[in-house]
User: Fold these one by one.
Assistant:
Number 1:
Amino acid sequence: MTNILIFIVGFLGIVTLVQILRVSELMSAVHKQDVNEVNEKDNIFNSKMMLIVGALFLISFFWQYFEWKHLLLPEASSEHGVIIDELMTFTMLLIIFVFLITQPLLFWYSYKYRKGKGNETAYYFAHNNKLEIIWTVVPAIVLTGVILYGLSTWNKITNADVKGATVIELYAKQFNWTARYSGADNKLGSAHYKLVSPINPSGTNALGVDTRDNDVNAAWKDDIITTPVDNVVHLVKGQPVLLKFRSQDVIHSAFLPHFRVQMNCVPGMTTQFAFTPTKTTAEMKATEGEDFDYVLLCNKICGASHYNMQMKFIVETQEEYDTWMSSQKTLSEKVSTQTVITELVTQK
Amino acid sequence: MSDHHKETFITKYIFSIDHKMIAKQFLITGMLMGIVGMLMSILFRLQLSSPGEPFAILEWFGVDWNPTLDANGNVIGTPIMEGVLDPNLYLSLVTMHGTILVFWVLTAGLSGTFANFLIPLQIGARDMASGFINMLSYWFFFAATVVLLISLFVHTGPASAGWTIYPPLSAIKETIPGSGLGQDLWLIAMALFVVSSLLGGLNYIVTILNLRTKGMSMSRLPLTIWAIFITAILGVLSFPVLLSCALLLIFDRSFGTSFYLSDIIIGGEALHHTGGSPILFEHLFWFLGHPEVYIILLPALGIVSEVMSVNSRKPIFGYKAMVLALIAIAFLSFIVWGHHMFITGMDPFLGSVFTFTTLLIAIPSAVKVFNYLATLWKASIRFTPAMLFTIGFVSTFLTGGLTGLILGDSALDINVHDTYFVVGHFHIVMGLSAIYGMFAGVYHWFPKMYGRMMNKKLGYLHFWVTFICAYGVFFPMHFLGLAGLPRRYYTNSAFPMFDELTDINQLITTFAIVGGLIQFIFVFNFFYSIFKGTKATKNPWESNTLEWTTPIERMHGNWPGEIPTVYRWPYDYSKPGAEKDFIPQTEPLKEGEEEH
Ligand code: HEM
Ligand SMILES: [Cu+2]
Ligand SMILES: [Cu+2]
């Protein structure tokens, strides 16, 4: 029923439009003028609209900024994030400056130089080498500055000293994250995708850690893997971390907006990102509101639940961290050698 | 020589080898695909503004498209969707929307239309170098369109890995339903599309180089032709890479090779693929993908330069600089693809190189904008609908170009990559700019295409509503992105930190619906005017270029007698000492007159 109604309304709309056009064309035929020739009235109307709409556009820019400023991400909670934010502020101010000069010029010229009384002919001005050199060289100089500033920031971030950083692995799969802490030795045990337990994909060997080496000091032994029940990553304020990323199936991307961290997780390779958190969750809750939490999002299209592939991060003090850590079981405590062997047998 | 062979209905309207008819075929196909792509965006915008709620309008569309999946992602039936959009369908819609607008509307629809239409008319040729290849180019495109449309109706849904179809998501059918038959059809459609685009592109290049009329030196070419020429070169160099990229993906999907795949477990089972890399795909894809955005943009830049000059009654400022800027942009566009991959873990030094090359593009782009402003300065502007869209173009090109400075800077990209900031950026700089260029072209050359005028008042209405709504849709997206909202999210309601963004999303959707509906005014105006528009005169805009010297009635061969000779550049508007404010290219220089 509604469909039919909509159809009828649409149809009548088109018929009306056709009739209006026919009438206006007949009228102008009577007045011996061409309906579609642009006349003085059109030029006045449209040039005024340029001024009005242009002004509204610029006003709305400020309106949006002040109205939505509080929604933007809070100041960075990491050391490198602060220098990213500085670069961002610099670049933003620069582009807003250029925006606020050029857009008004465009709308102003469109208004001012309409064809009509007093402005029947244009000024023949085909080129001017001096002007053209100026507006090639000035952007070039400004951009040199932007590039140098940007690259120095980039180098600082990517060359961060990772010695002494706590190594944590983030393992992505459709549609959740698992974390593995490297434990007391700060070394992750090696892993291979064929070792991921096919029997129990969310169990102890969800990440394919190679537990065959029985040496007491083997790197895997003190690794700690988060469980789906307690799926939170704990970090210590002021302590650098080196996140290592792997993926089991498709490309995911680990995005920690509050820390200004993002890195793709690509099957078949390991990627990494180092940073130092500077604010505890408790401190953030104090300024951002009680329901604040650091979150990890997936930021590369990865399937149906891409929009909901999340994990909580908690930044805390060393003491809080130690308390939590002491309650965790290491991998060697969880895995009895027996199950390892059976798993390997089923693999072959 | 006039070669009037007898035209039957079939050779005139269907298997036509007349460049003007082929141009119209591209235009109308592109327009229809544009409507499809736009309706898709409105459907998924509805979902974003009120996530998970049923919509009557979705019930119309959702007949067989909504597979329910078991834990392994296999389809287990298609219940009636009751008007709620399913997440897989959401991703399908986003993917098809992007694919259709980028390739079907703004590559084939824009280049195909104006390259075919304008090249022979503006350089003074009777037709393209090979009319037959030109016809093939359209029919390959048509076949691609049919395949793509069929993919909308397959049981598991159309491709849904994003228009960038990164593997493994696009390679392994268990990862998402759209990665099944839908993805195969997408790849076949794209292969056909590439063939069409190569056939077209080669023809454009050959024609421009060889068939210019007497006196039409390269330095007298209208900027439209320069832009189309450079676009065609870009396409011929980059589309083959996309084709090979897609072929390798087809091998991985169907023949068990491992170009892009390695160490993957699906549904608890380890796949045999080792040694490949999805990153290789990204390099190949973006080697086309970045030039592609300029393949979209350059023709629009050309159209806008021409329309602006005609309606400002003033030469385009800095013709030579405009050509050089086009060449510089085209050259640079080949060495910046890595800016799409800053956070793939690429070598930081490589990241620096790509930041450097990317930010360099801002220089020729800035030159273009300043030259446009200088053209408007002291002009005598006549506000045709085409001119309005031209001014709109300068505004969006500027806005979107500026945010590019943020995305091109690797350090800043870390936090805005793949967020709505990107969606805002590329829609404004590429989507809106190119669409405005296309509208400007249609309004401007409609009288030449159909011998009639489009209704100007509807044109004004169309422009103003579009201009306001388009900024209303895409400007706020920057704020969403700076709030951290990732793109390709089915809903923002899974994260409490995004709860407050729903208001912005509702605002955006409202603008999108109004802006979308107003496009039907354009479509109406277009078809109405083909049959009922007021009759056009021979040179309605008092323009200098050659196409306006042809008769109003369409004819095969373009000029009834000899092809005119060209004596001057196309931008002699308001030249001091001339009788009228325009001097067509066919008019010899007067004694003592300087060329420009
Ligand atoms: C009616 C106007 C339009 C609206 C409301 C609209 C809206 C959107 C939205 C909301 C997205 C999804 C963003 C995401 O989740 O990642 C999107 C994606 C996209 N749109 Fe549009 N858009 C419009 C017109 C255009 C135009 C003119 C183009 C031409 C270039 C375009 C090209 C794209 C592309 C390439 C994507 C990315 C698809 C992907 O993620 O794979 N859109 N659009
Ligand atoms: Cu994911
Ligand atoms: Cu690019």
Number 2:
Amino acid sequence: MRNRWLAENRTQMSILFVLFVLLVLFMISSPKTFLSGDIYAAFMSTIPFSMIMALSLTLVVICGEMDLSFPSIMGFCGYVFTQVFHATGSVAIALLVCILVGLVAGYLNGFLIVKFRLPSLVVTIGTQFFWAGLTQVLCQGLGRTLVPTKESPLYYLLVGRVFGKVPVQMFWAVVVAFFLWLILNRHRFGAHIYYTGDNEASARVMGINVDRVKTIVFTQMGGFAAFAGVLASLEVLYFWPTLGQGYLLKTIAAVFLGGTPVEGGVGTIFGTFIGAIIIGILEAGIIAMGLSGFWTQLVYGLIIVISITIHSVLRRKVA
Amino acid sequence: MKMAEPSEVLVKMVNIRKSFGHAEVLRGVNFEVGYNEIVGLLGDNGAGKSTLIKILTGVHQPDSGEIYWKGQKLVNYSVAKARELGIETVFQERALSEQHSLWRNIFMGREITNRWGFLDIKKQREEAERIIREYMGFTSSALSVDAVVGTMSGGEKQGVAIARALHFQADLIILDEPTTGLSLSETQKVLSFVEEIKKQGKSAIFITHNIYHVYPVADRIVILDRGRVVGEFMKAAIPLEKLVEKLYLVARTGRLNDEGSFSEGTPKGPHGLESLMP
Ligand SMILES: Nc1ncnc2c1ncn2[C@@H]1O[C@H](COP(=O)(O)OP(=O)(O)O)[C@@H](O)[C@H]1O
Ligand SMILES: [Mg+2]
């Protein structure tokens, strides 16, 4: 029983170990920063945006697909949120419309991939440019304030601070993680995502509606990208026309770091959760250690390559 | 062939045609399975056997032709519908999810859930436990329901695919080349499964290109060659040696002239039925 648990969770244990080692390393090298609570509050304010998208992207990758368009959907939906908010004065309506638009954008990816049997990588490169371009055309490179959203209780519900310290968005990231974990591991639909990614042809002949699975998986990705866009914009109380840029590689890296292989079929929400934390603390940790920001990318690269190698070796041992 | 009333047989496929692109894989196939009948479907690689049964199980739609189940014509046919009717299939490719556990594979595509679709994992594992003991005869503790299918032997994988099909109590069980790549003892096990199906009053289609595997268990043998049925024999009416002779004849001439049927217009070609021969 214990052995089975270990065998099934060795990937997750190994990534947790990496996080642990990094934290200890940072605490030793820069105790002033890493032994104070402030840095963790800062982490909890910024990590959720890419974490939420990474959690959602995990489903796409397990399904054997890839999405490169979520940062642009995030940006476009941030724009939609801002415009609808200024038009209606209601955060609730703006949030609703924005998530709806995200779901539609995600559905469009799924539709193109399933209907015309196109590779998801290619389709989402296309839609990535499309949504980013549309945002630029519409906002003409201009940002817009979101300070008036502070009058709505929803603002505090989404990005407020509990006890004046703990960012609420972290709570939302945990909720999203739990929800997606539940679907993936305890619901029939999650099982079908795994089977689709493992062997699409097998899934098909066993009566699983593979096309429907993929469409829903891409649709939810759009919805969560929109949600992350709202959180990120509200956090800074401003809509930046560049919203979403810089999230692509970090988000994908979090998924791979978490042990979900690019071929799909397996993967965990827990792994991605930890992967997103590692990606999130790495930059601050490197700078606090006294290394210049130039080192960040190099260390990112090292950690990712090492982790993915460990995952791959562990997996081959099992198979 | 005697054209029976539709309801006299379990399933009946009439004039089935199917092309993939320019390749016509099935060229007007008539095929039926009676109640409590074991039909051996023989044919060379590429003859269209798997395509025929994939149409029967709703995986592919035929270009034309009809399927009758217990006399009822099937419309809007799908994999889900086939299962509802009681057709279970062990696909040639086995249709397993190799990175996942045995118990998950048993219930792949029809998980035990509550009304909201949440899995009853405990029940699935218990059922799987029972199934592998009951149908696969895996009494050794070496193989647990938590074993990852990809780590299992070919015979064990086939066992999972067969146990899965048997468990769901189908009226018709289709086995597509279930003995290919299996050891002698594993083959014997598969053959005893088929005998068990017969005993339980169910029907089966046993696809193979080894006449010696299917002959002992079949009631009737149908020979498919390049998308056409070129021969059909009741086992009771023909001894094995005679059947083998016939197969040589088809291989040489592409036609059967006496006891067999469907002998007209069968093309001769470079890849006949030689590979059916021992
Ligand atoms: N999905 C498919 N797409 C294209 N061609 C196919 C497909 N399935 C089967 N074929 C072709 O149809 C022919 C018959 O295949 P199959 O039914 O698998 O034969 P058998 O099972 O008798 O060996 C082969 O030439 C095969 O290449
Ligand atoms: Mg075949």
